[in-house]
């Protein structure tokens, strides 16, 4: 098994197949990658662009090349000395008729052998929220028909091109109304069938209707049946499922979904049998040595993440590298009992944001933002409003289900003093909205002490809300979550606890990441997954503390700076961090731009479009995404405008302020899109000239921030993860923009060239220099893996006037030492001197190096003596960053 020292995330689909990836392997080898980290490769719905909508856990997607293609890729990786990490999706599958398990559940209902594979509330019919209107309206419009589906060999209720299988016991309703002997035979075949031999039934029906004339005759009879609306309604009522308007899903869904996506249904991998069925191929790939490690998607969605991870670890053995997609909020720590290497690294992004932004300047940016909006902004109020919106509207069905369970608990625990259901629901909403993290991890065995303490804190916060929930109802909900109930109510309480824990994460994600982060736009660079805009600014000492903690907590967890889920590219964030250094400059610029483009603001009945908050967002998002060379040629502007339009649609709808995915305000969206398009029109020369000129110092500072975060990632505790394309500069917007094809040929050209010399002003383009920082850093990691994972982390003392402008730390492991030095808050430095190597910037600033003998810079070959204070000017003579190493001779 290849040791994991650096991963490269490759997004399969959208033109990237296994054979295409084989051509990339030599480039990854040159860059210093140890493992290709693949997005989901299992069979997904036809045309899937991401692979998280899996239809078959136990088949490699033929669209990517199938198992043979995967084997060819793995052979190429092994020939190059590289391994493979797979992204797996145990939480959910596609609620698609292409999914054989789901098709069986729809056809047979709770009798299906796969009914227990999915998280369905079988107390009611399975709801299928895929109609474009109410059932009655769709029926009246004639959009429902009974159709023989040749591919599956069954009768279906068709809604346009979607064919929902009729449960076999209902075939007689059709045949009784049709004068067609072949249909009578079809019904007889169905009557003999059982859920376990459904394939035989389908085969017999296909053979019976194999001739075209037979199918035409049957379909003609079915068309006559379809003309009877009352009969179709009766037939629909006889199914174990019911079709419904998609907008009713939030209140009436009978299955657990992934967040708000009704097309993804929760899988019960907490059940041992389901686990085995869902992991058969995955485990085979690990045991055969095809795969070295697994990334577990959305682990917080599982009923019992702790139990799941314990079972998975047992089945894959002690050496398989496991990381989980887990969002750690604030100072939250990973559960110590999880047998994993760590997370996918969102908290590392937060740590970088904390140290690369200016806390003092951010206060000025805050004032500028509030002045631009012309109204006070309370982040706490906005956060609670977003979470309340999610709990009471978007996840109303889940809250209703929890209320029903808590009512059952109350009937057992408090039969003589029954609270009203509305009172219980209000208590549940109060708890959900007060949760500061994604979830707790109680299971049938109970709740850990740390989680009990957290729940008590949450309950206290819930009681302090205005209006406050009923105290008795809140106490009952907390008791149910903790399991502090009588024996008779405990089974129901466990179900309540499980569903509650599976709800708080989606509410947190959709309220904060996908609502608040598009509403509160002070500095959008820090509105990132796992972050908090209020906690985004900290001194360098806080960063050092977090990195020291990583050595103990997850030295082999991923160091991520970009993923397929991040809100913007890592280098776009790095550029926008510099806004915190110059709030007045940004304030004045936005004011000018708003005046210049004011005649393109449209006054609608509910306010201006765009409103001031959206204008502020637009200018920041453009500043982050604008190409490095600041082009004003029509082709480049058109390309950016096309990309930006998709981003802006998502940003407006996710904010849910004046439009949303479920209630689109076309007039508002059209006006905002026209405004943004006008900004990037080649004939808008006055604005474009001002915009690009204003951006120049931020672009220069952003490059320095980018190189700083890159070198930090190469040397911090953990495993560096490179998201595809980010090695040459990443100014992408939110997905799907960040899944655009990567030009690997240009990366090869860059690696063929030498590390460019540093210019007298500014910084080389990121595409020319960033890959060399990565390759150099990864070559050292490959040579000394333990040094950069489990090696001690120590901040270095910096003295002098520029001490706050330097991040300096050492990694030590026995006789091996590596020192990282990078600039911090570079905008102020560049304003004083255009060349960050200028000795005048660092005249009295020195860093005390660890006692490690002679240290050599990996980029300039400069040498320094350990154990002494060394001038930063000396260390930055050739490049304004350094990686000094001193290694013991190889034994």
UniProtKB/TrEMBL annotation:
Organism superkingdom: Bacteria
Enzyme category, top tier: isomerase
InterPro entries tied to this protein: GH, GH13_cat_dom, Trehalose_TreY
One function term, GO molecular function aspect: (1,4)-alpha-D-glucan 1-alpha-D-glucosylmutase activity
This enzyme's EC code(s): 5.4.99.15
Ranges of residues in domain Glycosyl hydrolase family 13 catalytic: 5-746
This protein's UniProt keywords: Isomerase
A UniProt-annotated Pfam family: Alpha-amylase
GO BP, sorted A to Z: alpha-glucan catabolic process; trehalose biosynthetic process
Gene3D superfamilies, per the entry: Glycosidases
Protein name per Swiss-Prot or TrEMBL: (1->4)-alpha-D-glucan 1-alpha-D-glucosylmutase
Organism field: Amorphus orientalis
